[in-house]
Amino acid sequence: MLLVLSEVHSQNIHFSNIYVTHLTLNPANIGNFNGDMRAVVLYRSQGYNISNPYETFYTSFEKPFFPFGQQIDVGLNYSYDNSAGFTFPGHYLFLSLAKKVNITRTLKLSAGLQLGYVSKRFDSSGETFPDQYNRSIGAFDSSLPTADAFERSTSNNLTTGIGILALKSMKDMILSAGVSIQNLNRPTENFFGMDYQVDMRNIVHLKMDYSFAQNLFILPAIVFVNQGNVNQTLVGSNLGYKFINNKAIKSLSSGVFIRNGIVNNIESLVFSIGIGVAKWNFFSSYEFDISGLKSSYTKNSGFEFGLIYILPNSKIEKIIHPTERF
Hints:
Elements: H1 22-25, E1 37-46, E2 54-65, E3 72-82, E4 89-102, E5 107-122, E6 133-134, E7 139-140, E8 153-170, E9 173-182, E10 188-191, E11 194-197, E12 201-212, E13 216-227, E14 230-242, E15 249-259, E16 268-277, E17 280-289, H2 297-300, E18 302-311
Antiparallel strand pairs: 1-2, 1-18, 2-3, 3-4, 4-5, 5-8, 6-7, 8-9, 9-12, 10-11, 12-13, 13-14, 14-15, 15-16, 16-17, 17-18
């Protein structure tokens, strides 16, 4: 393989519910909610039918602060990814800041800045190699000696990103459009004494939130991601129902998205469902391969489970002041 290939690429962290893991999408997304704080937790298992599936964990917390009378939205998100069995774990910690500006009564712009710390490690201690095959038991045995000895190798670096988001409010509709650039400083990763400069990651995303027929809403969205020579798209929509007079259940929704199909061949189809209960939103999705490559389960098949908690806004938006007539 190495004789005929000049480069070998692995996948980056990616999610089916990409608008839920909004801080991996754009730092300008911080504070784009109605409340005092928001917390998100998500778990993804990809290639679930193999012994060591790709596993990704994501969590984020965001809250607005008001220094010197100005609102600054602050977000912190952490991701753990294991994309090669148990041999290549990665830790990603990001701090993001965003500032909103009212252009008009219905148009807002938000600019975001992101600073991250990325730590990746290669560790083959839990793996077995061809010369560890034990014929007496008919299986590989990690206790046997091996000539394929790999030292542990770790790479740590800082990364930066920027983003901008435009929000346009209209009757029964909110439009959002954003652009972000991640790995802006192009950090260098080092494994086994070899350096690799990480490509910048460019993201464009569009979404519409439209309410109709009093209780129904639709959320079409599209995301385009480019990094180096790799392009990826995610396009689809969610359809939901709001329970206006129900104090327990707030909403139900479901959706369908297609990964790729615009700039390259279709990879997978994503089905998602969600339910809003009080201050919580629970969601789940299933992504499966429709590319025709039936052996590519490790690439395109996965489950995601997660929840969102939003603390309601304590700020008084409107004040009714009674007056006397004279």
